[in-house]
């Protein structure tokens, strides 16, 4: 029998720290001997003993090992997988408390990083749904499930094949999910049906370390039109295993409108460079927003909270103050969702995006909605946004920018300062990088108002929309 050595911890324990406030990435902050201590899995007001996991010159990182007092901000998490799968880090605090700290996060970043003042900070826009709000989830198969201490101590012979989510910071360990509160029905039912069929038929689950096995990944996409997409990703081209599984899915869930499979023998689960085979139904699903239809394929990006995305886009359009005469540039346009959403209130919309396949989706979304005043270009933003593009379509009156978490490249910010559009609407999924960019844009622009938007309840993530006007 294999013997496990007890792991020795490199750093000391600290007793009875009082947690003071929320910090970045959902961690909380305490202080010890003139050092800041960032602690995971706690709430402001907790008094805890912690184990130090990382030591730096000016701060420590730690995890709780014993609670002396529990914060009044706490609520009982509703998911049995809380604190294991890592997907909903803030289930232990009330939704009102989540909103308060998200609003504070945006304000702190704007003031401390952006050094911006004199703007109006509007109250955060909450999500009507705080559970079952996502339209897409990805689950991973593994033949080596993560076991909790309680499961290990039980001495039971436990099933080690799993279908669920990665344990934080462990690429090779998967939590076997029984019920997930993020995506509406029939998401849980489909996942469990696939898992149970695979166990009954003894289909090999993937070994993430040895890179062997059969079943790799399951993606479920639900749409507000009722469309339903399922993508099964496998490691080997074994139709004798795959076809019966797909047929079983269709028999159990006739509401599936788009069923696909991918054979992926690469070292990772990404499939944007691979063929996706449509086994049944249409090769896409549709989302609907204010009379517009958006086609979503297996590789398409679409905001994962459909209801709140509509509110986000309405807010963006309101901030842009469009009257139908403006030349609008939509940077980081993705599948052109914002571009097409504002096109009917604009003279023209020019969308620019790095991912070529997304631009093709954007063009299709214009076509199916009979929108004729949009133009889309693929390429690196700092290269495409040039004088040739301005000569072809004119300089923008309004710029809408929705960059990835890293924010805008300094060359793009420099180009915006050169172009001098009357208004910039900056949509961000990372208030820290947004604040950094706002500080650079403040050379010529005033930040008029900022609106935080909660797209992802039960997590520390927050969107932020800022309106800038040219001085």
UniProtKB/TrEMBL annotation:
<dbReference type="GO" id="GO:0070475">
    <property type="term" value="P:rRNA base methylation"/>
</dbReference>
<feature type="binding site">
    <location>
        <position position="332"/>
    </location>
    <ligand>
        <name>S-adenosyl-L-methionine</name>
    </ligand>
</feature>
<dbReference type="InterPro" id="IPR030390">
    <property type="entry name" value="MeTrfase_TrmA_AS"/>
</dbReference>
<keyword id="KW-0808">Transferase</keyword>
<dbReference type="GO" id="GO:0070041">
    <property type="term" value="F:rRNA (uridine-C5-)-methyltransferase activity"/>
</dbReference>
<dbReference type="Pfam" id="PF01938">
    <property type="entry name" value="TRAM"/>
</dbReference>
<dbReference type="InterPro" id="IPR002792">
    <property type="entry name" value="TRAM_dom"/>
</dbReference>
<dbReference type="InterPro" id="IPR029063">
    <property type="entry name" value="SAM-dependent_MTases_sf"/>
</dbReference>
<dbReference type="InterPro" id="IPR012340">
    <property type="entry name" value="NA-bd_OB-fold"/>
</dbReference>
<comment type="similarity">
    <text>Belongs to the class I-like SAM-binding methyltransferase superfamily. RNA M5U methyltransferase family.</text>
</comment>
<feature type="binding site">
    <location>
        <position position="402"/>
    </location>
    <ligand>
        <name>S-adenosyl-L-methionine</name>
    </ligand>
</feature>
<dbReference type="Pfam" id="PF05958">
    <property type="entry name" value="tRNA_U5-meth_tr"/>
</dbReference>
<feature type="binding site">
    <location>
        <position position="303"/>
    </location>
    <ligand>
        <name>S-adenosyl-L-methionine</name>
    </ligand>
</feature>
<keyword id="KW-0949">S-adenosyl-L-methionine</keyword>
<feature type="active site">
    <location>
        <position position="429"/>
    </location>
</feature>
<keyword id="KW-0489">Methyltransferase</keyword>
<protein>
    <submittedName>
        <fullName>23S rRNA (Uracil1939-C5)-methyltransferase</fullName>
        <ecNumber>2.1.1.190</ecNumber>
    </submittedName>
</protein>
<feature type="active site" description="Nucleophile">
    <location>
        <position position="429"/>
    </location>
</feature>
<feature type="domain" description="TRAM">
    <location>
        <begin position="7"/>
        <end position="66"/>
    </location>
</feature>
<dbReference type="InterPro" id="IPR030391">
    <property type="entry name" value="MeTrfase_TrmA_CS"/>
</dbReference>
<dbReference type="InterPro" id="IPR010280">
    <property type="entry name" value="U5_MeTrfase_fam"/>
</dbReference>
<feature type="binding site">
    <location>
        <position position="353"/>
    </location>
    <ligand>
        <name>S-adenosyl-L-methionine</name>
    </ligand>
</feature>
